[in-house]
Design a protein that fits this description.
Elements: E1 13-14, H1 23-26, E2 35-39, H2 46-55, E3 60-65, H3 73-88, H4 105-123, E4 130-135, H5 143-154, E5 160-166, H6 174-179, E6 183-186, H7 188-191, H8 195-205, H9 212-223, H10 227-238, H11 250-262, H12 268-277, H13 285-292, H14 297-304, E7 311-314, E8 321-323, H15 325-333, H16 337-352, H17 357-366, H18 370-386, H19 390-402, H20 409-421, H21 425-442, H22 445-461, H23 465-479, H24 486-504, H25 511-522, H26 524-527, E9 532-535, E10 541-544, H27 556-567, E11 573-574, H28 575-582, H29 589-607, E12 615-618, E13 621-624, E14 629-631, H30 632-644, H31 653-659, H32 674-697, H33 701-714, H34 719-731, H35 735-753, H36 759-772
Parallel strand pairs: 2-5, 2-6, 3-4, 4-5, 9-14
Antiparallel strand pairs: 1-7, 7-8, 9-10, 11-13, 12-13
Helix pairs in contact: 3-4, 4-5, 8-9, 10-11, 13-16, 16-17, 16-18, 17-18, 18-19, 18-20, 20-21, 20-22, 21-22, 22-23, 22-24, 23-24, 24-25, 27-29, 28-29, 30-32, 32-33, 33-34, 34-35, 34-36, 35-36
Length: about 775
């Protein structure tokens, strides 16, 4: 299954040390029960309590923060298993086998037991308790997930427990475990602070000259047991308020406090950042920079996290955050509808250029942008269907259809594949036929090929083998045409291989190309589609994925700057280093101005493609976001590493020539490029040599000569390459060329180095050519 996990959803949140430990509640979790349900409205400390199971109680915690997109059984099981892997290591749970299932009770049971079996094996090495935390469960409305959880929880071992936190109704399956004496409900009353806890937190957070007992008593009278209300009153007290028995009763009054005591005191740009980013589910610097059109989000997030009730870190690093529920609700109320929709639109556009295209769809839907949602569904819909996430795709399709917009052929194809995989084959075929006609009209070759291949699949499933094979025959001239852009050719080649193997069982004839496809699937980080493709061999060129034209540079210095950032491969570089390298004669403010001008011109060009965040600025240093880039350097490196590790992978020489079209940064004059230029040339020559040797061993001497011709053209002085070429001609008994290249090499060595050919080459000459000529 394609790995599009959002890691922040399965990271245990990090909360402030100022939150008190609650032993009376933690003791409840020591009961020998299978299910605990925390049921309370916002602000009752459910999340904080669950994090303390790990840090205070010492148990292992597998965390899963749920949202609307988790109303899909496959998605749910994918995240659940990945969360458990953080505790148990890799589980041999093959979710892919269930991707196309009907999701009836029998198959749901089988899938659940498969996961349980792997957990049981892994649990044998565990002694302490493990808690599976399902946070914000109120968003789940899929009965199939309830079924899975009921089966899952009922079969758990005693030291594995499930904790469900919900602001909404209590899960249906809880009653079964309660009746059996295996479930506990911890409600709003239990989660609320008692007087002793209020006094404890007052002592912890308020100056010693205050009377904690008196203050705690006043707070208990004012806000009762509501933890959020208590915390806000304490903050207000620390800022000089609460001189008398002020009442902060209920959510509306707390919002009023936030506005008066916190929000209005912040700088306007911070207020704008808070309200705008509250529309996001999870925050990181990249997405915040994209939606806010700034470049300092990381420093703002680091500042905000110091405010205990504003934002919390997710996981162990400083990369991912989310707002506390109460703060998020308040901030959302400060956001007008037009601004909220614009933020959602920018977030969707940001995620369209990442691996998490699911998020692009969700943000487009939440931002009520049907055209953008439809485009995003067209980009990821078929992958989602093939992963078995039918419920999610159904929800997307239903929403788009309710908007009454024109459907593009790509999304029409998604409709077709979704209906086919949902058991409505004829309806699916109708949609696919419509998509084919639209692709023809719009002259979209890749879309047309993909739609025709999906139609061939359906014909095969329906038992119409001849019609299926007929479609492939019809496509063959197109699929085999190499006179097209590399991206289109690679897509066509992979599609053709898969179908030839599936339809004709013709594995041997396609083995070599099939290995290319296998490599791509084994190295998804190297081969997945990214928004940028860079050609660094020969002329330096930058392409937007899916666009035919390359990025145009306003100045040569702008191109050199971008090339150098790419050369650093994601390593940060300071402004001073860049100005010294690129403008050595213009230091000080003049050089800085030239740098900013070049950066501005690059960013302006990138912004037209929604790639404002490609160049990052963090801790006063610039770097390129390499997660957004594929390159010919990467292609060559993966190819080389694969061969070096002994895996079989044979490309045509033309394919390697498409990658290595010249020296690294051939037309760039910076000396910093020279070491890498030498290293990559050696890598290319080694690839040619390894391929040539393998072909020679297998008796494919013509192919060996092809490889050696390419290599010798790059480095004519490498004797081992010359030797292999001469041996290949000799093995073919082509004595004319054997003699020709021997004499040519002999002349070159004598002229350049005053040397004779090595004994190895001399032996080849005597064995094959000398004998023939009576030498």
């Amino acid at each position: 299954m394609k790995n599009n996990i959002i890691e922040s959803k399965i990271q245990v949140p990090r909360v402030s040390k100022n939150f008190i430990i609650r032993p009376r509640l933690l003791e409840q979790f020591q009961e020998e029960l299978k299910l605990f349900v925390l049921h309370a409205t916002v602000g009752y400390g459910k999340t904080v309590l669950m994090t303390q199971l790990n840090g205070v109680a010492g148990a292992d915690v597998a965390w899963y923060h749920l949202n609307e997109s988790d109303n899909d059984v496959i998605t749910f099981m994918q995240y659940l298993s990945r969360s458990l892997e953080k505790i148990y290591g890799v589980l041999q749970f093959d979710l892919e086998r269930y991707e196309g299932m009907e999701q009836n009770e029998k198959q749901l049971t089988e899938m659940t037991y498969d996961l349980l079996e792997q957990i049981t094996k892994a649990q044998q090495k565990k002694i302490k308790d493990t808690f599976i935390v399902l946070d914000d469960f109120q968003v789940i409305n899929n009965e199939k997930i309830d079924t899975v959880l009921e089966i899952f929880i009922s079969s758990l071992e005693t030291n594995l427990k499930v904790v469900v936190a919900t602001k909404g109704s209590i899960p249906h399956f809880w009653s079964r475990f309660y009746i059996q004496g295996q479930g506990m409900l911890i409600g709003q009353k239990e989660l609320g602070f008692n007087k002793e806890e209020i006094e404890m937190i007052v002592k912890q957070m308020v100056a010693e000259d205050k009377n904690p007992t008196e203050i705690a008593g006043r707070m208990y009278q004012s806000v009762g047991r509501w933890p959020a209300g208590v915390m806000f009153e304490i903050l207000y007290l620390k800022q000089g308020g609460l001189q008398s028995s002020e009442n902060i009763m209920g959510k509306a009054a707390v919002y009023d406090y936030i506005m008066r005591a916190l929000y209005r005191k912040l700088p306007f740009d911070i207020q704008t950042f808070l309200s705008s980013t509250s529309a996001l589910e999870f925050l990181n610097a990249d997405v915040c920079n994209a939606v806010m059109k700034i470049d300092n989000s990381q420093s703002i997030l680091n500042y905000l996290v110091q405010e205990n009730l504003l934002i919390i870190k997710v996981g162990s690093g400083d990369r991912m955050f989310r707002y506390h529920s109460l703060m998020k609700e308040f901030l959302n109320e400060q956001l007008n509808d037009l601004t909220r929709k614009e933020i959602m639109k920018r977030a969707a556009e940001f995620y369209l250029h990442t691996d998490n295209k699911e998020q692009a769809v969700e943000y487009a839907i939440n931002g009520e942008n049907p055209e953008l949602a439809e485009y995003a569904v067209g980009s990821i819909g078929i992958d989602m269907v093939n992963q078995g996430k039918l419920s999610t795709v159904e929800r997307w399709i239903n929403w788009i259809e309710s908007c009454n917009i024109n459907i593009t052929p790509k999304t029409m194809l998604v409709y077709g594949v979704y209906n086919w995989k949902s058991g409505r084959i004829n309806k699916g075929l109708d949609f696919i036929n419509i998509a084919i006609e639209k692709f023809i009209t719009s002259m979209n070759e890749v879309g047309y090929i993909q739609a025709m291949l999906e139609k061939a699949r359906i014909m095969k499933v329906m038992g119409k083998d001849e019609e299926s094979a007929g479609i492939i025959d019809e496509l063959s001239p197109i699929l085999r045409n190499k006179d097209r852009k590399k991206m289109v050719y690679n897509f066509c080649r992979e599609s053709q291989i898969g179908f030839n193997i599936n339809l004709d069982n013709n594995f041997k004839d396609n083995q070599e190309n099939y290995q290319v496809v296998t490599l791509a699937r084994q190295n998804p980080d190297s081969y997945r589609e990214k928004p940028i493709y860079i050609k660094a061999f020969g002329e330096f060129q930058v392409f937007i994925t899916g666009k035919t034209e390359e990025i145009k540079w306003r100045t040569k210095k702008a191109q050199e700057l971008f090339a150098y950032l790419f050369h650093l491969n994601g390593e940060p570089v300071s402004k001073e280093e860049l100005t010294l390298l690129l403008w050595p004669d213009n230091q000080g403010k003049s050089a800085t101005s030239l740098l900013h001008t070049a950066l501005y011109s690059i960013r302006r060009e990138l912004s037209t493609f929604g790639l404002d965040n490609l160049i990052c600025y963090n801790k006063k240093k610039y770097l390129l976001n390499m997660d957004m880039i594929n390159s010919d350097v990467q292609d060559l490196t993966v190819y080389y590493e694969t061969l070096k590790n002994g895996k079989e992978l044979h490309l045509e020489e033309e394919a390697l020539s498409d990658i290595y079209t010249g020296s690294y940064m051939e037309r760039m004059e910076l000396d910093e490029f020279l070491p890498q230029r030498v290293n990559l040339e050696k890598m290319f020559l080694k690839v040619c040599e390894m391929e040539g040797i393998e072909d020679f061993k297998c008796g494919r001497f013509e192919r060996t000569i092809m490889w050696m011709n390419r290599a010798v053209a790059t480095d004519p002085f490498e004797e081992s390459l010359q030797l292999l070429r001469i041996k290949s001609y000799a093995a073919l008994r082509d004595f004319k060329n054997t003699k020709k290249y021997y004499e040519k090499m002999k002349e070159m060595l004598l002229k350049e180095f005053d040397l004779q050919p090595s004994e190895d080459i001399g032996e080849i000459w005597r064995k094959y050519v000398g004998v023939k000529n009576g030498v």
